[in-house]
Request: fold
Amino acid sequence: MNRIDATFARLRAAGRAGLIPYITAGDPSGGATAPLMRALAAAGADVIELGVPFSDPMADGPVIQRASERALARGVGLKQVLEMVAAFRKEDSATPVVLMGYANPIESMGLARFADRAREAGVDGAIVVDYPPEEASEFAASMAERAIATVFLLAPTTPTSRIMAVARLARGYVYYVSLKGVTGAAHLDTTDVIAKLAEIRKHVALPIGVGFGIRDAAGAQAIAAHADAVVIGSRIIQEIEGGTPEEASARAGAWLATIRNAVDTVTKRAA
Amino acid sequence: MQMYDLPDARGHFGPYGGVFVAETLIRALDELREQYARFRSDPDFIAEFDDELEHYVGRPSPIYHARRWSGILGGAQLYFKREDLNHTGAHKINNCIGQALLAKRLGKPRIIAETGAGQHGVAAATVAARFGMQCVVYMGSEDIKRQAQNVFRMKLLGAEVVPVESGSRTLKDALNEAMRDWVTNVENTFYIIGTVAGPHPYPMMVRDFQSVIGKECLWQMPKMIGRQPDVIIACVGGGSNAMGIFYPYLAHEDIRLVGVEAAGEGIATGRHSASLGAGRPGVLHGNRTYLLQNEDGQILETHSVSAGLDYPGVGPEHAWLKDLGRAEYVSITDELALKAFGECCRIEGIIPALESAHALAYAAQIAPTLPREKVLLVNLSGRGDKDMNTVAERTGMKL
Reply:
């Protein structure tokens, strides 16, 4: 069993909701990423989503755009991100790592070459924001051959027929984008999310992570009561931005720990 | 060439095109595709589009025989398709009318657009005013500085111009920001993309609306000279004016189609916008096409004296026509484009857009090598009023 499936099986058995922090690789520095990942794992991260910097991050809000620009300015690209994962894997062989980014850096490296290198580095899954299922069959197959999960997004605007199409191709978990907007937006409506999750569960057996717009303990708790995992990105990057690069791991870890505690007070209803 | 019936149902031109966007936008694109499929053959829609083109845009645009310049060049004859005479001064309006009519039928009261030099932004603001819609135009803050007049124009027309501060602060970033707006306001907003790029159905839809250019040439040329031209030449940034004039001629296999990209300061300097000539395939802004990118797959900043060609990608249908060999793609430097700009002003009394001057420069380059009875049809896609500051600066004049 791969690390993602094992993690969700363990969470399910314990009746807990998972916590999935996102950080952009290479921000605040290339060397900071592996220690940051370790700090997040120590603070209770169940899965870590690691953003691959891209020059044109169409689906990201200003916070992740800034992080991406800072990383690019330091020359961090897909190749370096894979090296960071390999560095993290030397210290942590249990926490699943999911890369999140855009298609072009992967196509530029080549699908098969990327899949090989990702497996060697210890990557467990990949979310490619601009690969909807219609354009992702070759990619998903290439990842599946290396036992790497292709994680797909579902949105408030996704109709039932597409939920079923995604269910056929998705592995690991599915990522429900909780609002119509970009990452880090501020208009999350929990009631809408809960209703849509119920619909998605009719067709998707995989665990469901929910992200985009979750920024505090209350929001995380509200989602954790219904989802299998809570994904938080922009808010963690703001925490990192709020201090010096040296403080990044300590600040991100301390903040995530408060969310972990909050999420753990919630008994998950859906099983 | 076998029967050309592209794109396929999911928007592919061979390996290019497609729908590479975040999940949230898929439903809006599906809806657009279905509605466009319905309206593109709807007689009422077509009649209203034609009526707007005739009475608001001023179509058909004439074809002009540039006799003096042809004589001076001493070879093939130059003919210009005068898109510069359209309302708002360029071909961009053809597409904006089509998409605004579609927005109206889809019940979307708010339109958004991206713009580089401001020409598409002005055209979008114009149709928004014409049809009583709210309009927001995204424009890189670098471009806003360079194109103050067009920013003022858009504001006069009632549009809100939003400066984009991310990335390189130019056209590609404006497109990213427009996509972000669309993903957030997808229920009430129609995104008018200005060129034959973006996710399906945009490349097809923009091509269809712009193909009025080539369709007119198909009947105008025989009326003027008794036959079709030998070569058709158009500049290519995203490629909408070129697709518009090429598309109706694709089946005329004996007619050469030549797209002219911006070589900027020279391809070897790296400061250019020749995606087809110097790029390689990748995925950006919703489609797969030739892109200027570094070895890590990051999109490069581009350069051209003409802001309208200053884009790191190109419409996916051009990528496919290049691979098929049906169209040829060449490039012209800033210097040669400026030279052709000056010659067109002085010899023909026409001030062309710097974008169109690239196509003119290539025509002027090959005309002397061809016999006098050969006919080169150049798409004069826009007029150069907007370029006064740029040209004055480049030639050391103060306005």
Summary: Chain A touches chain B at residues 54-59, 61-62, 65, 69, 72, 77-79, 102-109, 129-132, 134-135, 152-159, 162, 177, 180-182, 185 (CB under 8 Å). The mean pLDDT of chain A is 94. The domain at 3-263 of chain A is CATH 3.20.20.70 (TIM Barrel). Chain A has twelve helices and nine strands.
